[in-house]
Every structure is written in C-alpha cells, then in structure tokens.
Design goal:
8 helices, AhpD-like, 123 residues, 2 domains, 0% strand, mainly alpha
Amino acid sequence: MNRHLEGMRRRREVLGDDHVDRAVAAATPFDAEFQDWITETAWAGVWSRPGLDTRTRSLVTIGILAALGREELDIHLRAIENTGAGRDEVMEVLYHVAVYAGIPAAHNAVARAKRIYEETEDD
C-alpha cells in the first residue's frame, strides 16, 4: 500500500476523521509537505508497525507528550476512545511520568486530561 494512504488510514483510525479533516484543511503551501512527511513517517512508518498494538502505542505517546509538556498531548488524550486505552490507564501512565520526568510535567498532564475528560462527559 502507498505509504501516504497507509499513514492517513492509521491517522484517521487513531485521531478520528474530524480531527484529520481539520488538519488537512488547515495545511498551507508552507506546511503541506511537512504534513505529508508526518503522515508517512509517524503514521505509516511508526504507528503502522506490527510490534505494538494501537492501545500500547497510544499510552506510550501520551507518556512521552506529557513528559515533554507538548500541546499535542490533548489530541492523544481525546483519541483514547479510538485506541482501546482507558482513562484509568492514562492515569497510570501519568504516575510514571511523575516519577521519571517530574511531578510538574505530570501535574500539568493530569490537569489537561481532567479538563478534556470533563468536556467529553458534557457532550
């Protein structure tokens, strides 16, 4: 399968059509090639590898993004409903972040997750 098509398939499976459609629509001539590269490298090249299941990859990604304090954490916190990961597992990952990357990073991630999960309960 074409790497771009495979990457888009995985990206949509994990993040959902709405998110991917917004991201594609927001691409400009400045960043369109970069967006394609992310799709082919991250989504086809890494997320589509057979070594870990989607749930595990999701939890690893959440842990890394939380440890680094990246805004993209929010996207992946919302995506757990598509990956088979649960909120309780996210919290366990954030305990690991607290021990290995620092309490401030984990505290920030817990606050973000709390806000996002409260928003989704209101839907």
